[in-house]
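SEQUENCE WITH STRUCTURE:
===
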Amino acid sequence: MGNFAKWIGGGLGFAMGGPIGAIIGFALGSLFGSDAPNTGSRPVYRSNETAEGDFKAGLIVMIACVMKSDGKIQKAELDVVKRFLVSNFGEDGALEALQVLKKVLDQPINEVQVAAQIKRYMNYSSRLQLTRLLLEIAFADGEVNADELRVIDRISIEFGLTAVDLESLKAPFVKHVDQDWAFKALEITNQSTNEEIKKAYRKMAMKYHPDKVNNLGDEMKKSATEKFRAINEAYEHLKKQRNFV
């Protein structure tokens, strides 16, 4: 059994049971046979903190939901996902993750049930990070797929994300077509005063600080810095636009 399967099997908590456990367990069983960890038959582990493996297992299943949204899987999509996985998990982990993902794609997935399981056991900061990663994949090739965005919208609703938070997550990806992207990134409007902009920046910097997802491991903490950078970029953009310090 490869590193990815060990990483999934050894680091799972709540995702050992429920729909995620059944989906991942089937995929690993198809790939590794008797060497695969037994996931679907394990009880759901209840904890207030998401295990690193829980997040990664949930991410793989949610990626599959997004990819299946238009009813067909294209090689170009797999290439985008592979680049994403390599950038987040390294070459070896990404190749094995891609094998598992391909098996997950062959299965029927009830996105509502999976999202409900994630909402129940994953904290809000982790759900924000998971949604941001799905958006990163959706926008990665520069061609926005309406079906993918609709699925992400539905997933975010099931996750319990607010509409404002979702717009904030989307904003950095559409800055070339939305002149108000920086305001949306900071969860304010273009009518906000300079003081309100400063206050919003401080609030968002705390909300999306990478330390909020320490429990997800170094790889995800590194990935979380992208949203943190986007907050800083939005603030610097508005400071320059409004000419304040």
Observations:
- The CA atoms of residues 52 and 218 lie 9 Å apart.
- The chain has a mean pLDDT of 84.
- The radius of gyration is 18 Å.
- The domain at 162-245 is CATH 1.10.287 (Helix Hairpins).
